[in-house]
Amino acid sequence: MAAFKKKFYCLDMFPYPSGAGLHVGHVEGYTASDILSRMMRLKGYDVIHPMGWDAFGLPAENYAIKTGIHPNITTDKAIATFKQQMNDIGLSYDWEREIQTSKPEYYKWTQWFFLLFYKNGLAYKKKAKVNWCNHCMTVLANEQAEGGVCERCGNQVIQKDLEQWFFKITDFIEDQKYEGRSIKGLLSGLEDLDWPASTKAAQINWIGRSEGAMVTFKVKDKKSTVAELEVFTTRPDTLFGCTYMAVNPEHSLLQKFAERIENLAEIKTYAASAQAKTELERTDLNKEKTGLEILGLVAINPVNGREIKIFVADYVLSTYGTGAVMAVPAHDERDYEFCKKHKLEMIEVVSGGDISKEAYTENGIMINSHFLNGLPSGDAKSEMIKWLEKENCGRKTINYRLRDWLISRQRYWGAPIPIIYCDKCGTVPVPELELPVLLPTDVDFKPTGESPLVYSRTFHDVKCPQCGAAARRESDTMDTFVCSSWYFFRFLDPHNDREFAARQAIEAGMPVDTYIGGAEHTVLHLLYARFFTKVLQKFGYIDFNEPFLKLRHQGIILAEDGNKMSKSKGNVINPDDVVRQYGADSLRLYEMFMGVFNESKPWNTKSIIGVRRFLDKILNLAEKVDARLKPGQNQRKLLIELHRTIKKVGEDIQDFKFNTAVSQLMIVVNEFTTHDKIPQAYFETLLIVLFPFAPFTAQELWAKLGHKSPVHQQSWPAFDQSLLLQEEVSISVQVNGKLRGVIAIPRDAAEETILKIAQADSNIGKYLADGYKKHIYIPNKILNFVV
Ligand code: ANZ
Ligand code: ZN
């Protein structure tokens, strides 16, 4: 592995190779990363710019169910199409590094990661609720069970308990130390990253850290205390306002004290109906809040000893906190609605709202709360926690929304989980030397409720690696997100058959310097990839813990009519058509010129024509190039514009302002067209700067000038700062919004210089005689004083 002098790892989110081919949204992100990569190569960097295929997944399997065509065949075909399209638009990938997650050479290491997690207690099996369709006999992903009905047959989806594999991602939320290594957590690790604020916020929100308290309530039957019920609350300050409790329909209290519950039959019926609903339906603020009082049991509010009712209610989730809540109707929206509906008592304990109209969920001054009265609710929180800890009926707690990652899928087209079940030895990991566990091909795709793998005898029947007895393979496969959680490591050492990637190769190439991809559907991918990286650091494989230093998203490209592009609407733009009609460079330039990179914007065929004309203009310029012409005074303006272009285009590419970079190219090309003869050196500079955007055009013209070596072996030109400084621009100076003068300044002069020039101007100066409060400067355009 050759070490790099100056490495730059520019990574695209690798695509799922769908039958539909590359769409214009792919082209947007991939062109941007291509432009950046090409510029960095010209700047002398060893650029790592790979592409691969996130090839496992449902669509290929569903297609196989419909048609009987094996996913291997459809996937390979789709990949061939994608690759052709990528080459057609001039994406400069290093195909030596190409990887495909559905190939045994790749998923062998996905399975190795599973074993690494398993060995270290980070992969475990437990029962979990899944969406299940009784008619199709299959597990459904959340997206396939929207509105509680099966996407395939329309039957109601139920929640079923099945044994599932999990990865312990929750172990990595906070910072930790391990064998002298400090591993930053998924939360604090975000701080140092150059990522869009909204993406960081989405990660933080997904993790959902809440500070609060556990509070223990005693539960009594008719005679005595029989149990304790713990709740998680973010508002311990409101405990005096708690007028009932609610538990989720699956809560263990209902089984444990079944014989003491007087209306057990009714409660069982209610619980069964709740099970049919999805989590989203159950917690939807607008849905009616149903529930049933548990007769025969009451709870005691620890802070005032009052007896309160206990309800079973499906707005309480089994998967959050302790699965039980202390209800404070006056200050929680859901409790408020529930309370109104069931005519329960409400006590206002935080002043500031009008609880006759709605729940008051903000902070305020405590009332009706004994020792908390008069305190702001923030202080009351810590006072109450102190009290709970002293009285031994509660403690400060941090709760997270993030759950461990359910990675098993009852699916065929994924990486098999390398586990064997033996009657004698139990759960036995497949020995590393026996990896990969190959996906069998003798399968039938008709859905039966289990992975088709179960019915492959060749796959299913194995010998136990420990005792040699007849045993059974795990037939679940892994979530495809597992495959994509480590692919950026594999790119650095794609053919290694002894390790997922050699340490040396990782150290030379990682971390990724710039990662580019859509903002939608990436919260989980980014979280999982960060998690894998942290696991590798914890166990000593690498010595960093964040994989992607800088992240940028492309915006969504809408159809010409402003709607989302969709097959059913018939408004999809196919990049192949654009390439055929206008050329690849037009497509590239157009997509970069459309608008702000990370914003959504509509397609506009007219503008492509404009971009095509721009390229034609450059082709025409070539006719005016004169190799013998010595640049002179009458080309000075052109020279300055050219240097401004070198500077601006270079900076704009770094900043992902591709649209303004293209504008600047258009400005300089217009300047070129005003000359009858063009010095060859100037034109060559233009071609180099144009090259990242329009590589085909630039190379064609470069060769036409007689160069043997290609443009991409040239160097990015340096700009002459003094040339830019010498040039003067006029800026308007306003005082309180009124124009008071126009001053000439050196372009891009420092702000203090400009302030001095403005104040020295006699006309402007007299308005500033008594000083000013502040000033606003828009570089090279306007200076505004506020007095
Ligand atoms: C009492 C209370 C009073 C609450 C109040 C809120 C406002 P976050 O911020 O998302 O962490 N809760 C706890 N466990 C629950 C469960 N299993 N299902 C549904 N709701 C649950 O939310 C924490 C709050 O959500 C907790 O604080 C609890 O209601 C509720 F004026 O406790 B609170
Ligand atoms: Zn055994």
The end-to-end distance, rounded to whole angstroms, is 64 Å
Percentage beta strand: 15-25%
Q: Could you state the CATH homologous superfamily of the domain at 210-399?
A: Valyl/Leucyl/Isoleucyl-tRNA synthetase, editing domain
Q: What helical percentage do the residues reach? A: 25-40%
CATH class division of the domain at 210-399:
Alpha Beta
Overall strand count: 35
- Calculate the mean pLDDT score and round it: 92
Question: What about the largest sheet?
Answer: 7 strands, mixed
Q: Regions with pLDDT < 50 over 5+ consecutive residues?
A: none
CATH topology category name of the domain at 210-399: Isoleucyl-tRNA Synthetase, domain 2
Bound molecules: ligand ANZ, zinc ion
Please report the number of helical segments.
Answer: 25
* Annotated CATH architecture of the domain at 210-399: Alpha-Beta Complex
Rg: 33 Å
Shape: globular
Broad structural category = alpha/beta
Short description:
This protein has 25 helices and 35 strands. The chain is α/β, with parallel strands linked by helices.
